[in-house]
Specification:
The protein is mainly alpha-helical. Helices cover 56% and strands 6% of the residues. Among the domains are: 49 residues, no CATH class; 63 residues, no CATH class. α1 crosses α9 and α5 packs across α6.
């Protein structure tokens, strides 16, 4: 598993973001029949090259959406009321979703890149980077967004470009 150099990653994203998003838009409109198989293969390769604990860029730069169930589970784990938890750690965004009030995530241990509430973390975190979602019209927006934040998603898209282009 490769170490993630976030500086190099950000530079690569800066150089290739437009091309990669354009590719994903074309793929969204014309998805190959064997896309799911190619996606699964590319995902295995990308995750094999990415140590999430080495990186933690998602926790450093993004916020999960906290569902009602997440708030209930996490606040109980922390011995807080749901209201106190929301007031201390969350805010409502423009569309009414509960999000972290600060970045990096308040539950990220910056020395170890480990989550202090891993066992009860938000569903959004547990599923990240959501590579189980089919690369098609319903979820392509997520891949376009996450390739800027997640080296594994960036590598997955690189692999897909290589597979589809060959």
């Amino acid at each position: 598993m490769a170490t993630v150099n976030l500086r190099s990653f950000r530079m690569a994203v800066s150089r290739n973001k437009r091309r990669m998003k354009s590719f994903l838009t074309r793929l969204e409109k014309n998805t190959p029949r064997n896309m799911r198989q190619q996606q699964e293969e590319a995902n295995k390769e990308a995750l094999a090259k990415t140590d999430c604990l080495d990186c933690a860029n998602c926790c450093k730069t993004m916020s999960p959406t906290f569902t009602k169930e997440d708030v209930k589970r996490i606040s109980s784990h922390l011995g807080m009321t749901e209201k106190a938890f929301r007031e201390k750690w969350l805010y409502k965004d423009k569309i009414g979703d509960w999000m972290n009030v600060r970045q990096p995530c308040q539950f990220l241990d910056l020395k170890t890149n480990m989550c202090d509430i891993y066992a009860v973390r938000p569903r959004d975190c547990a599923g990240f980077p959501h590579h189980n979602k089919k690369m098609g019209p319903d979820y392509m927006h997520m891949y376009k967004q996450n390739l800027e934040y997640c080296p594994a998603t960036y590598r997955l898209v690189e692999q897909i470009i290589e597979k589809v282009s060959s």
